[in-house]
């Protein structure tokens, strides 16, 4: 995503589904790329110890990612990370996107490294993966996550709209130009640009996907049975196209403000623009690895793994913006791209396949 300086300053005043500025000590927005650490059919949050899990995921972050992950300090278990900030050993994972050809076969859609912003050359050279944001949501003290913290956004089984209006947890944006050029528009905030469903027409420059996490915590539980109940969106609810801010007041049940996390993935659809390969009826040919052609099952998992109090210092250390924020330690791109974990369930995920893994 390419945001102008004017747009960034304006975020503090916007009542939209954008990460909001304004934490204790000043405005803070960490924005950094992470390469893929693995693509695998495991899910230590929702399906711990299950090999294989029901569907494929793309994973970024630390090399402690495994079929199960203990509720311990992940920052002390990992030895490397694929992220720009060297102290972030967290893991983030989402569903993959596949192209379904007219003949019924599937091929995984690769990701495009995000474009230059704030002189962040690291993010433009990542291998797969996506961009992560941490933002101080609104005014007041922002409390960083604790060791053992984890959460989930979205529902892998959802196939239809729930409720009225657009809920801002996830959205897609179609880039109709020949190349992915980025834009200055806020994510999940423009009814003309963003959809909860996968775009219906051709996206010559790719499809951007955004996942926004809750900004309020109950202050007690590091996890919950559904991985959602211990966190919440502001009292006004998830932002819609018409209104409320993720920087709003937290409900009494979840009074502690936590950083706004946003994941941003750019899917490189350029290799699949030949209409002769699309379904004969002209319907959109993309499907998430959950088996979902609608896009409603888009979801994001998170296991916290920042080293020591580095994230809290960053949240307290504003004003700062970008990939050189708050004097956080960074690493070179070669080190990040070399950080990998072995596949626990080897299977073909990049060639043409007759059916989706797990389907």
TrEMBL record:
Asked if Cytoplasm is a keyword of the record, the answer is no
Q: One Pfam family from the UniProt entry?
A: DUF1996
Residue ranges of the DUF1996 domain? 43-306
InterPro entries associated with the record: DUF1996 (IPR018535)
Secretion signal: which residues? 1-17
Instruction: Alphabetically list the UniProt keywords.
Output: Signal
Protein name according to UniProt: DUF1996 domain-containing protein
Organism ancestry: Eukaryota, Fungi, Dikarya, Ascomycota, Pezizomycotina
């Amino acid at each position: 995503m390419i945001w102008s300086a004017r747009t960034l300053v304006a975020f503090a005043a916007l009542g939209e589904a954008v990460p909001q500025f304004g934490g204790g000590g000043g405005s803070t927005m960490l924005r950094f790329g992470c390469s893929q650490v693995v693509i695998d059919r495991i899910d230590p949050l929702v399906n711990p110890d299950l090999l294989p899990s029901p569907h494929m995921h793309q994973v970024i972050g630390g090399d402690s990612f495994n079929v199960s992950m203990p509720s311990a300090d992940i920052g002390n278990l990992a030895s490397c990370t694929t992220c720009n900030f060297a102290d972030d050993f967290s893991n983030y994972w989402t569903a993959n996107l596949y192209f379904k050809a007219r003949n019924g076969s599937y091929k995984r859609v690769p990701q495009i490294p995000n474009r230059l912003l704030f002189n962040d050359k690291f993010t433009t050279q990542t291998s797969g993966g996506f961009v992560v944001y941490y933002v101080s949501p609104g005014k007041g003290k922002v409390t960083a996550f604790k060791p053992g913290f984890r959460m989930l956004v979205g529902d892998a089984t959802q196939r239809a709209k729930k409720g009225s209006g657009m809920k801002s947890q996830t959205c897609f944006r179609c880039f109709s130009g020949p190349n992915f050029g980025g834009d200055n528009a806020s994510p999940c905030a423009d009814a003309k640009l963003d959809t909860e469903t996968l775009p219906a027409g051709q996206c010559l420059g790719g499809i951007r996907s955004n996942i926004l996490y809750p900004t309020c915590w109950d202050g007690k539980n590091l996890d919950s049975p559904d991985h959602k109940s211990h966190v919440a969106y502001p009292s006004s609810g998830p932002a819609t196209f018409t209104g409320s801010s993720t920087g709003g007041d937290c409900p009494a049940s979840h009074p502690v403000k936590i950083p706004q996390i946003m994941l941003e993935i750019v899917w490189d659809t350029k290799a699949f623009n030949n209409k002769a390969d699309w379904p004969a009826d002209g319907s959109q040919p993309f499907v998430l690895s959950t088996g979902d052609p609608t896009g409603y099952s888009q979801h994001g998992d998170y296991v916290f793994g920042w080293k020591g109090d580095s994230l809290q210092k960053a949240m307290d250390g504003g004003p700062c913006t970008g990939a050189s924020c708050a004097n956080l330690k960074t690493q070179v791109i070669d080190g990040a791209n070399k950080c990998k974990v072995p596949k626990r369930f080897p299977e073909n995920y990049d060639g043409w396949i007759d059916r989706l893994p797990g389907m």
